[in-house]
Amino acid sequence: MERERMQPAQNGHHSATDQAPPVIHAEELTKIYHMGDTEVRALDGISLTIARGDYLAIVGASGSGKSTLMNIIGLLDRPTSGVFRLAGADAGQLSRDRMALLRNREIGFVFQRFNLLPRTSAQRQVEVPLFYADVTGQAAAKRAKDALERVGLGSRLRFRPDELSGGQQQRVAIARALVTQPSILLADEPTGALDSKTGADVMALFDDLNQQGLTVILVTHDARVAQHAHRRITLSDGVIVSDE
């Protein structure tokens, strides 16, 4: 069906370079929650374009709308109104299954709490998303090994989380996010559970990945983390108050 086509659009909105559609395009996004009789506008008319290869930080105080915007960018939630396109596909026109497929293909998630399986080797952890992409067996093992080598853990394939430091566990989580070869790495407070030295090492890895062409979006309240990005968007009360 035409409305569920997931190839990037060849016309319409273009990035500043005008060579390809932006990886993310949002127009007048709102997200309204109802708590009893109270209406909470978590997002209030946000418009945003993110080009492929951007390195972006979304910052703001607790309750500013950062997490809500991240969930919409990550196709974990839908806006109440407005248009949201990811890789040219209009998310509002996609069924849940097609949204899940697009999310699995285009987005790698990194969370503050590493979300690793306790008694599972690093390689197996990284193979998990490939199962949903119908990649199994030796092909999955090779891709997981390559992803772990890419984050500097080629010698730790068999190690379980309890045998790894916090920084190494976050690197396993990053390898797991990279293994499906997404176009976007979406990181929510990626250094929040790490000491400052280890956090700096993880941020250096994000810098390298962005230099290799990956679009990196950080959601953070930490100014030191946000400084790594080339562009910083500040939210307050569901509105973009600055885009630098």
Explain what this protein looks like in three dimensions.
The chain is of the alpha/beta class. It has one domain: P-loop containing nucleotide triphosphate hydrolases (Rossmann fold), CATH 3.40.50.300. It has seven helices and ten strands. It has helices at residues 66-73, 96-106, 122-132, 137-150, 166-178, 196-211, 223-226, and strands at residues 24-35, 38-50, 55-59, 81-86, 89-90, 107-110, 184-188, 215-220, 231-236, 239-243. The strands form two sheets. A six-stranded mixed sheet has the order 6-7-8-3-9-10, sandwiched between helices. The longest helix is centred in the C-terminal third of the chain and has 16 residues, at 196-211. The chain is globular, with a radius of gyration of 18 Å. The model is unreliable at 1-18 (pLDDT under 50).
